[in-house]
Structure to design on (608 residues):
């Protein structure tokens, strides 16, 4: 079932153009000039029920704008959205009842009253039946380890505690859809782990559809099978995480430790254009190469011909590097994509 | 009624929230008291040696001051800055993600703080009256009922004005200018500064046509028994009219604002 469907979605903002200096400021006061800034270009997006989707992109790519349109707090400039059959910006309240959302930098908890009070307020706001509220509350307190701070006000919580509480707050009413905007930003490793496990569990048990934006690639590797990458307001990749890895993580590195120095080999390798040599010590060096050009055994074989290899280990390019190359504009996932199934 | 429960819960939490600020609560309490004293002695100076000013005797005037103080404080500084603050810091987004009506939720919240601030003012006035004499108390219980109703009406109207002013923050980037302008206009035209009867004739007539007079003028007129029971009822009717009109205006403006303006702060 398609739970989120957006067609030809766009959003542009009006930005004031001010000329520099006092003169410019005065001019703007009387004859303001504006330009249209396009945040999201015509964009098609479909998410199936129960999926966990990572929505990535560099800062300012249009991620948050898209999420805001999907949650109904921003009206699109054009295009259509349907979330579980509801148009989010026309029927904001109905849509709000069926989604949960955590925006990393903001809290939905009341600042000065115990967070338990915030939770019980949500129970009334979402009209959650007593039994459901109790079950969820008990489960969340246990899974997220909230018992030690549930009686404190949000002001007194650490960032990690607040994030856990916010996550719990967004799921109390068992929403079919959960939007997470940078849920692990600024958190330590163990809290990150707890949060990821929690989201995974909720997704598996409740079939909650999760859409998550993040800069933390650990979040993606742990949680998401599908990846959507957006840049300059347009989707530049939509596919599985596995495909990105196998198709684009082309660089492979082999680290060697040899018994005696091999100057001849190193000279030869230094001249090979598509193999990168990195010397770490007299007896240690690494070779990086494109795994579509060479196989690992070819490389290892070549080295072994020249001398005795004491040890070697291999490292795959990780997803982080791939994403970085995409962000830097050095890799176009759409066009340089190798043949399907290659 | 679970819909009512939604909003009454908000009122409850808002009350808890204000109570969390014990120190600031005490300080507000004291500064209000100082304010009341200052105005009281100012007017005492003006009345010095005169039987009446603008048709008000000193006894009537000090009753007027106390009622003004009470009516003004049922919806005060806190609610003023709370709504515009939400818009300016972008936390309005969090409210939009909830299945609640923004305006009703803000009203429920305001009600929570008003209960406290109204209660506090009543205590303050009680203390004040203990040390002064000559305050005019009406004898008929009916007046008290009408007065209580008119205070509710005043609150509704004032909320309407405050809400509309707060929504202006969608278009500006600061709230102070708007808040001060609103306070100046409201204080003048509601009769909080001086009774409307002190105004030149034309200004008094203009003021009576505007919603602001419902906030101070109406409760004071009723408490000072300057209106008969029927007149009082019709004044309360006018309050209801303004309350509803401003509510609808607020709703329209909100719909317009939400559609037109992106939410500040990303």
């Amino acid at each position: 079932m398609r739970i989120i469907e957006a067609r030809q979605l766009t959003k542009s903002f009006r930005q004031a153009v001010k000329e520099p200096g006092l003169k410019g400021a005065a001019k703007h006061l009387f004859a303001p000039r504006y330009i249209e800034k396009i945040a999201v270009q015509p964009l098609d997006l479909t998410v199936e029920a129960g999926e966990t989707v990572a929505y990535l992109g560099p800062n300012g790519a249009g991620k948050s704008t898209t999420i805001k349109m999907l949650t109904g707090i921003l009206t699109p400039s054009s295009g259509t959205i349907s979330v579980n059959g509801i148009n989010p910006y026309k029927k904001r309240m109905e849509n709000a009842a069926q989604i949960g959302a955590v925006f990393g930098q903001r809290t939905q908890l009341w600042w000065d009253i115990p967070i338990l009070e915030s939770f019980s307020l949500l129970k009334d706001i979402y009209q959650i039946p007593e039994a459901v509220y109790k079950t969820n509350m008990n489960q969340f307190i246990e899974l997220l380890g909230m018992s030690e701070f549930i009686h404190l006000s949000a002001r007194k919580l650490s960032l990690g505690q607040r994030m856990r509480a916010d996550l719990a707050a967004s799921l109390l009413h068992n929403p079919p859809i959960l939007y997470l905007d940078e849920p692990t930003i600024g958190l330590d490793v163990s809290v990150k782990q707890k949060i990821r496990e929690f989201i995974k569990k909720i997704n598996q048990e409740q079939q909650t559809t999760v859409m998550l934006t993040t800069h933390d690639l650990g979040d993606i590797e742990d949680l998401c099978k599908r990846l959507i990458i957006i840049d300059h307001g347009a989707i530049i990749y939509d596919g599985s995480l596995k495909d990105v890895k196998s198709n684009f993580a082309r660089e492979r590195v082999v680290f060697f430790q040899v018994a005696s120095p091999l100057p001849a080999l190193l000279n030869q390798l230094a001249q090979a254009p598509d193999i990168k040599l990195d010397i770490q010590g007299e007896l240690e060096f690494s070779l990086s190469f494109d795994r579509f050009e060479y196989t690992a055994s070819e490389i290892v074989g070549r080295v072994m011909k020249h001398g005795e290899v004491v040890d070697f280990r291999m490292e795959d390019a990780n997803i982080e590097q791939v994403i970085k190359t995409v962000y830097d504009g050095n890799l176009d996932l759409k066009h340089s994509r190798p043949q399907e199934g290659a | 009624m679970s819909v009512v429960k939604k909003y009454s819960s908000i009122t409850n939490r808002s009350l808890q929230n204000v109570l969390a600020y014990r120190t600031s609560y005490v300080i507000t309490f004291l500064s209000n008291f100082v304010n009341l004293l200052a105005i009281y002695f100012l007017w005492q100076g003006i009345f010095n040696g005169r039987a009446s000013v603008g048709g008000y005797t000193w006894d009537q005037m000090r009753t007027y001051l106390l009622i003004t103080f009470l009516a003004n404080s049922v919806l005060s500084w806190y609610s003023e800055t709370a709504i515009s603050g939400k818009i300016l810091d972008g936390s309005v987004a969090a409210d939009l993600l909830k299945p609640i009506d923004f305006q009703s939720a803000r009203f429920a919240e305001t009600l929570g703080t008003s209960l406290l601030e109204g209660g506090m003012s009543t205590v303050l006035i009680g203390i004040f009256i203990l040390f002064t004499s000559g305050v005019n108390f009406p004898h008929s219980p009916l007046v008290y009922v009408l007065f209580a109703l008119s205070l509710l009406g005043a609150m509704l109207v004032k909320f309407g004005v405050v809400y509309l002013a707060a929504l202006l923050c969608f278009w500006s980037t600061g709230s102070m200018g708007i808040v001060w302008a609103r306070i100046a206009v409201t204080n003048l035209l509601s009769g909080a500064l001086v009774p409307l009867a002190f105004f030149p004739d034309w200004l008094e007539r203009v003021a009576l046509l505007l919603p602001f007079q419902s906030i101070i003028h109406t409760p004071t007129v009723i408490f000072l028994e300057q209106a008969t029971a029927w007149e009082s009822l019709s004044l309360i009717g006018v309050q209801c009219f303004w309350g509803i009109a401003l509510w609808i205006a607020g709703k329209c403006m909100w719909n317009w604002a939400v559609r037109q303006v992106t939410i500040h702060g990303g």
